[in-house]
Known about the structure:
By secondary structure, the chain is mostly helical. The chain is about 85% helix and about 0% strand. It has a domain at about 25-70.
Amino acid sequence: MILHDQRRLTHALSIAIADSDGTGDAVLKSRLERILAVRDAQSRRVSAAHDEAGMRLRMISQVKSLRRTISAVPQPSTLGRLDSFQ
């Protein structure tokens, strides 16, 4: 979805530049500002999603590490259990 939106915005920018004849600088500037605002919002959303995924992965790693520390009997890995289903 994000790549599709990026392509649409880039296309809108190229059209705005091609249509500009010097007299519509205010219109071009407002379109550019809108495009940049949308891109900034997308960048913030992607960054937030990346941070959230990283936090969840760290939490999973900490839980697994704690489980290994507490457990007296070594637990088989999840991959080992998945191999047994085949």
